[in-house]
Amino acid sequence: MDIRVYKNEQEIGEAAGKIYVDYINANPSCVLGFATGATPVPTYTYMAEQCKAGNVSFKDVKTFNLDEYCDLPKEHKNSFYMFMYDNLFSKVDLKPENIDFLNGNADPEAESERYRKSIEDKGGIDIQLLGIGRNGHIAFNEPADEFSGEAYKIKLTESTIEANSIYFDDIPMPRYAMTMGIGSIMKARKIIFIATGAAKAQAVRDMIKGEVTPKCPASILQTHPDVTVFLDEAAASLLD
Ligand code: PGA
User: Fold this and answer.
1) What is the mean pLDDT of residues 109-118?
2) Of residues 65, 87, 137, 232, which has the active-site annotation?
3) 137 is catalytic
4) 38, 151, 156, 195: which could join 235 in a potential S-S bond, CB 3.0 to 4.6 Å?
5) CB proximity list for 105: less than 8 A, separation 6 or greater
């Protein structure tokens, strides 16, 4: 793992965002895997600014996203699709037909196979962006007895519900989600991992220094050949 520590999330957004801009300029029809949550927002902001300035175009880029809530309309303000629309899709020149998203309201098995095939048909994901949950989850792969494979429907843990409930002010937060599995995430050619804030410090330590175990799903990244880890000082505070 290539571990880089920055002063704050703005610096990370710029550094990680620059990797994307350079990659897209060198590979205009690349396939990108995106993530939701507060952590990647500065990276999306940087990409949107660069697109607006004419320094990069997303017109041939294809995208996938890690996960989506079940039992929530795609147009609800808290869906992950709307999060991506607000923070990136509406601000860059991506073509709607090049955006693929897990459907949390479809039959889980059929949707898993549709998504797997869609990724495969587009040549696989070139760069997958990842954050981490306080419990070590990546996407919605919660601590478990085994590493998961392709996309599947998961019951969210109390820790995740507590962390994400703050965003739901009109309806209760969904209890289930469709998520890319660990197997599908590990197929990405390159991973950009970002964690910020002291609340992530223990999970980051377990991911980098702990044993590789499904009890800390992010620990599997120790076995991926190309992971760049972006941390702020708080998230890196428990590393030596
Ligand atoms: P966050 O979520 O960026 O909102 O902290 C990350 C995650 O749970 O994977």
Assistant:
1) 98
2) 137
3) yes
4) 195
5) 70, 71, 72, 73, 74
Q: What distance in angstroms lies between residue 231's CA and the mean position of ligand 1's atoms?
A: 13
Decide: helix, strand or coil at residue 84. Answer: helix
Which residue's CA lies nearest to atom 9 of ligand 1? 132
Rounded CA gap, 145 and 217, in Å? 10
CB of 181 closer than 6 angstroms to any ligand 1 atom: no
CA dihedral defined by 91, 93, 94, 95, rounded to 10 degrees? 120
CB of residue 217 inside a 6 A radius of ligand 1:
no
Please give the Cα distance from 231 to 170 (Å, whole number).
33
In the numeric block, which tokens belong to residue 39? 């952590």
Structure tokens given for 115:
């998504």
Distance CA 218, CA 235 (A): 14
Which whole number is the average pLDDT over 18-43? 98
pLDDT given at position 71: 96
Helix/strand/coil for 101: coil
